[in-house]
Amino acid sequence: MVSASLIGFLHRIDQNATLFLNSFSTPATDQLWMLMSDKTVWIPAYAICAYFLFRRLGWKKALVVLVSVGIAFGLCDQFSTIVKHSVDRLRPSYSARMLLGGLNVLEGRGGFYGFFSAHAANAFALVMCLIIGFRNDRTHTYNGFYKFALTWAALVAVSRIFVGKHYLGDVIVGTIVGLTIGYFVGMLARYVIQTRIDKVPVTGLTMIFDERKFPITLTKSSPSGSRGSL
Q1: Pairwise CA distance, residues 100 & 112, whole Å
Q2: Whole-prediction pTM value?
Q3: Tens place of pLDDT for every residue, the chain, 230 residues?
Q4: 6: how many CB neighbours lie within 10 A of its CB?
């Protein structure tokens, strides 16, 4: 068991780090952080991603990817709710020390408990599912999209500090949870696509090399049982 004194020590560090980051708020950047935190603003962007999934992957694969996004969202939300009510860590917007320390709060204070950030978890889970999902299209590269999507998720996560709703620790843990859930759910969707739709040998996630320069050719097993060259 982690001692109460250690938990208190880590909590104070988290409070100080959050106040330090939050202190960089300005009237100009406040609008940006509120925009990044507003889920409804990004609905058109979600629709555009869904459109390209259907256009590039076909309706069957796109549907599998979208289902994986929904599952990842649900898992992140439910897990976040369970942890919040288990840990019972008040949001910074309910902390007298944070408010007296100059915390800039841009939104309503929300529910009492904030560990961990569901915004951060959902954003990174969405991005992971989409990155893995678009990898099922072997005719295009999406490096620009990957960089943009990860940057967007990072901004959404960080915005929760600047609007005064979460501590830095809430955001870090939420990011880790989102990446983890998004990866495993996304890979499960990839497995379904490869085995049920494409009916090809199951492969892992390759994101480093440029397939146009290093093409992959999968061949059937030889009579001796050895695999063909890649």
Answers
A1: 18
A2: 0.85
A3: 567 788 889 999 999 999 999 999 999 899 999 999 998 999 999 999 999 999 999 999 999 999 999 999 999 999 999 999 999 999 999 999 999 999 999 988 889 999 999 999 999 999 999 999 999 998 888 999 999 999 999 999 999 999 999 999 999 999 999 999 999 999 999 999 999 998 888 877 654 334 444 343 333 444 444 444 33
A4: 10
Dist. CA 87–CA 103, nearest whole Å: 22
d(CA 115, CA 143): 32
Q: Specify the amino acid at residue 36.
A: M
In order of 133, 210, 218, the CA distances from 190 in angstroms are 7, 19, 17
Give the span between the Cα atoms of 125 and 137, in whole angstroms: 20
